[in-house]
Amino acid sequence: MQNAQQAYTFHRHNHPTHSLRYLLYLPKEYDEVETERWPLVLFLHGAGERGSNLDLVTRHGPPKLIKEGQKFPFIVVSPQCPYNERWITPSHLDTLAALIDEIEHNYAVDPERIYVTGISMGGFGTWSLAIANPQRFAAIVPICGGGDPSQVCAIRHLPVRAFHGAKDNVVPLKRSQEMVEALQACHGNAQLTIYPDATHDSWTQTYDSPQLYMWLLEQRRAAQHITERQ
Questions:
Q1: Could you tell me which residue ranges the Dienelactone hydrolase domain spans (predicted)?
Q2: CATH number (domain holding residue 128)
């Protein structure tokens, strides 16, 4: 299992038509320390990787880097959205939440360090999943995505790092700007990085940055709860 991505199918309990195929990566040291609890990163791909061929999911983001040999100090779960469907539908959001439940049940996941990131359609999914489950995650990283600014204050306690290309001709930059600005208006912890020369692919340089993963792993859900009580 270690250093490779294995394919699985998740069947949502009591919802036989709601299933997802996904790739699972475990860190090299996963089996070496039985008491260790590991951070979990959920990666949501874009529209071009939908379907029934899991190899498509390895085109971009952490699954691509893992396929190329990169090692990560966290569990990575990369589900695949079916053809002609979107992550942001209520049924898919519920199924993604249930998938995280199953991974938590079956693997040594640190519940205080669960993160979501995604690109394009997966960037929209990242925003929507966090808003639908505001106390579940430790941080999110939506890339060239967007969402409903009127709902975003539900995650004002959640650290957010968004990324977008200034010349994006698929998802306009304003979609990320309006989400981050709405979060900042309700005193949220959100930052937007704009790549001045990037078009739609603002994810390659984002995921190639070790600083992104260092920042993610510093975020803990418990610390947010303490802050909220103060």
A1: 93-200
A2: 3.40.50.1820
